[in-house]
Fold this protein.
Amino acid sequence: MAVEVTFCMIKPNSVKNKNVGAILSHLEKEGFCFLKIQQMKLTPSFCKSFYQEHKDREFFSALIDFITSGPVLALALSRENACMHLREVMGATDPAKAKPSTIRSLFGQNVEQNAIHGSDSLQSASRELALFFPEEKF
């Protein structure tokens, strides 16, 4: 398998609840290398672009409100099969349905505040990495 680069974001609830260190440790134990880490406060206009595929869904406004409610950590991660492995490590979107010991089962509160985001494909990863780290070439 080839080494890939994917995008990950630790969400505001994880930062607020002081779970960043535990989540980073979890990712490191899963073999991810941290190529770039940046803490930032996202603006509503930036998030509307980031979450453009959800713009017509009923939860869109609540999602924008949540993701802009506090700082996030944006990460560029690498390892073999990075994108799909991150999805497994994160667990199901609903923490109540996530497998035990996944990040969302450990640190997510509910479907909306599920602790972490990860790109769902290499195409999404490329778009998301370019949005968050426009000066970088991964």
The helical segments are 12-16, 20-29, 44-50, 60-67, 82-90, 103-107, 122-132.
